[in-house]
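Changelog-adjacent note: as of this version, every example in the card shows the full chain rather than a window. The one below runs 126 residues end to end.
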Amino acid sequence: MLQSIIAQEGIGTIDPRVYDINQARLDADYGFIACTVTLMFLDPRRINAVLADMQEHTLPGGHNLIVCAMDTPAHPCPVGFPFTLNESQLSTIYQGWEMLKYNEDLGTMHNGAQLQFATMLARKPV
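Full-length structure tokens:
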């Protein structure tokens, strides 16, 4: 479907690929890596490796965008995701990166479930 949209729009800068993110083995370096509403579906034992791989394969001055569900005492996650973030967990993992945006706010999923999300846009040091 994505390849069809790329062709219809005449976009030459997108190279879609199938990638098993649990493997945490990116094969190139990128200026921008987005991981939105994805981490919570991964094997919890692989999260640290996945995030470390994203960081390692981000070019200096590049960005990571992450949105992930949270499970906190104030807002227990009502959905049985395999993985959720704890308070400040994501910002701690990205310590040393420039936080362009970071919040842990309530949001609503497409199915109407309300839960807390960590949203981060961070720039890797040059």
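Structural remarks: The radius of gyration is 16 Å.
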